[in-house]
Amino acid sequence: MAELLVQLFFVLWLVGSCYSVSIVEQDVLRFGQELEHLLNTTYSPCQDFYGYVCGRISNQTLRHQQEKQRFQQLLRSSNPGQLLAMEQKLLNFYKSCQSSRNLDSLMSTQLYKSSGGWPALESSNNNQTGLGWLGLLSQFHEMGTPYFFETRISMQSNKRLVTLQPDVTRRHTLRKFEQRVGELLQSFGVEQSRAHVASLEVLSLERNRRDIIKTERIDDQVQFSYANFKRSSFGNFSMARLDWDAYFRKLLGGKTLKSTDAIVVKQLPRLVDYMQLLQNTSIHRLLNWIWIDYLIDISAADCQQLVEIYAGDVYAHLLQRLSTDRVQLTQMYAGIGRAYKEQLVGSVWIDEISEQSSKRFLSQVMHIMLNGDEYLDAAYQDLQLGRRNFYRNMEKLRRFQHKRPPPTLAALQLRQYAQSFETIYELLPRQQPQNLTAPLSYVLLAERFANHLVAAGSSSRTPGAWRSIDSDRQFIQFVNCSKTATNTNAHELLLNMLAQRLAGSSYREWLGQQATVNRVNALLTAGKLQLTLQRLYFIGSLLMECREGQQEHKSQLQHKLLRNTPEFSEAFGCRHGDALYVQQQRCQLAEHL
Ligand SMILES: *[C@@H]1O[C@H](CO)[C@@H](O)[C@H](O)[C@H]1NC(C)=O
Ligand SMILES: *[C@@H]1O[C@H](CO)[C@@H](O)[C@H](O)[C@H]1NC(C)=O
Ligand SMILES: *[C@@H]1O[C@H](CO)[C@@H](O)[C@H](O)[C@H]1NC(C)=O
Ligand SMILES: *[C@@H]1O[C@H](CO)[C@@H](O)[C@H](O)[C@H]1NC(C)=O
Ligand SMILES: *[C@@H]1O[C@H](CO)[C@@H](O)[C@H](O)[C@H]1NC(C)=O
Ligand SMILES: *[C@@H]1O[C@H](CO)[C@@H](O)[C@H](O)[C@H]1NC(C)=O
Ligand SMILES: CC(=O)N[C@H]1CO[C@H](CO)[C@@H](O)[C@@H]1O
């Protein structure tokens, strides 16, 4: 730590006295300092680059306390006038979470009132809603919380197809659950003896529920017409006792099922077990269980987590636009787009269809960076979130997300790429807001972006679907040369190689235009890690991938890639005999038509 401070002072001294180092340069130097906490120097970069970059963080929890502060800082530094409506809504949600996650807010929600409330809170609650257990479940199912069973409704030709599937989730161990129930009741100020009774009731229901989950059931399914479903009985349990019409009316917003609509029940015996359990449970107990389960996660999470969980797409959108220098980042995208055009368009690897899809992706990402995503904004148009009532917001937001149509592939691709900014945010919580300037954008994002750009050239998620079938012959050669075990791995390697060429050449071009490269390199080299701008590129690109599972596989792939990259050996001074020294017979990619 002391050493670090000395170095920091040294750098600042250089900055203050000898040179005038720009904000951009400071950004790079700070990143260099940050890497001292992130890299594992037990590994030599030329022997095990994956270990060097990821050997310390892949198993480490990166989220710091500072992260929350940074989000607030980010929001504070944003100019509300520049936010799109959906971003403003997200901000409202966040603010409501910070200021009104309380009892009053909970008790004034629609859901609270219509369900009959949380009995543990109100000793005098004799409000019988008369819902019955199925009616009570419908209140929650409609909002997208599938207690006991999940109901999915779709259209098939001109009939509705309803699938009922028993829920088998256990988010916590029973012990943990018990502990959380205690904490929750306490945090809501439930008087101790009442809390004790409530938690015993809830635990016994939870135990029964888990017994039903534990029972092995074959994965069968049974199909009924709706009319037959309502009339049927299983063992001594008759469906006719339940008001299924009311249940579906709630889920369908007032519409009803036709008697010829189809009902498919998965794991019918388990569903019947649940029904017998629910039939035998008092509404009072069920309400206590359901409200506790509903509140347990949202009352413990911090506000930023809730934003991420329940409006992840808007969160990622906000993050990418607030935490970066938009103009510099857009210029980087354009630069990589040019490299794509020069190096890939007209090559055997892609055809015109791929090219069109990749181009569309590029222009969308650039547009989002400069102007925001109006499709996403439009998707959130009907959602109203105020600043005052957290639980009401929560209910609206969950219902809204539940009813949204599934995203298109193009939207998914954009969303996946946008998640890179969350990774940066986790990696560098100390980076100032709005300071992801050009060099850091290249270092952290260029390769990942290039990867998404190439892969976006297909309307399917099959690995390698972006590749033109005209390149089959070259691909067979590539597989042979790269000695990859499966075609999937070969496609991954090929994609990474192409992405690295696009991103690496853009970065080198950008470096070539900077007058200060030597000066910054001199400052970087003086640091403990002896970095250079060239080294930063390889480190940063891999750093972004460290946390995403399958470490053995990732490391093999990365090392194969680096053995095909002369610039890597050059940047790190790898020598003949080093494991990652550039191989003699490199796999050729530059096959033009
Ligand atoms: C670096 O890696 C070595 C070998 O896996 C490990 O023992 C060590 O704990 C790591 N160092 C840090 C600081 O994580
Ligand atoms: C990291 O975690 C994974 C699984 O969680 C484990 O298999 C692996 O051995 C761990 N690696 C180190 C270096 O601790
Ligand atoms: C009973 O329900 C009504 C409306 O549903 C509500 O205004 C009232 O506060 C409830 N009383 C209690 C004790 O919960
Ligand atoms: C239905 O049968 C189960 C055993 O299969 C029994 O435990 C339960 O009490 C019965 N319920 C009714 C209402 O008869
Ligand atoms: C029904 O509930 C009672 C009291 O809670 C319990 O004793 C009984 O075993 C339950 N029966 C079934 C079938 O779950
Ligand atoms: C695979 O590569 C080896 C050289 O590494 C070559 O001798 C062989 O002919 C190649 N096979 C095919 C099918 O291209
Ligand atoms: C250390 C540093 O570069 N800070 C800058 C980050 O960005 C903000 C806003 O653009 C500047 O005000 C800081 O000086």
Question: What is the share of helical residues?
Answer: 55-70%
Structural class by secondary-structure content: mainly alpha
Which range does the strand content fall in? 5-15%
Overall, the morphology is globular
| Helical stretch tally | 28
Q: What are the bound molecules?
A: 2-acetamido-2-deoxy-beta-D-glucopyranose
Largest beta sheet: what is the strand line-up? Answer: 1-2-6-3
Q: Using only CA atoms, what is the Rg?
A: 28 Å
Any idea how many domains? 2
β-strand number: 6
Runs with pLDDT <50, length 5+?
A: 1-6, 12-20
Mean pLDDT: 88
CATH class of the largest domain: Alpha Beta
Mind describing the biggest β-sheet? 4 strands, mixed
Brief characterization of the structure:
This protein is mostly helical and 593 residues long. The protein is built from 28 helices and 6 strands.
Describe it for me?
By secondary structure, the chain is mostly helical. The protein has 2 domains: 24-80 and 311-592, Collagenase (Catalytic Domain) (3-Layer(aba) Sandwich); 105-300, Neutral endopeptidase, domain 2 (Orthogonal Bundle). Helix content is 61%, strand content 5%. It has 28 helices and 6 strands. Strands 1-2-6-3 form a 4-stranded mixed sheet. Strands 4-5 form a two-stranded antiparallel ribbon. Helix 5 runs antiparallel to helix 15, helix 15 (303-310) crosses helix 16 (312-322) and helix 16 (312-322) crosses helix 21 (409-427). It is globular, with a radius of gyration of 28 Å. The model is unreliable at 1-6 and 12-20 (pLDDT under 50). Bound molecules: 2-acetamido-2-deoxy-beta-D-glucopyranose (7 copies). One 2-acetamido-2-deoxy-beta-D-glucopyranose is lined by residues 276-277, 280.
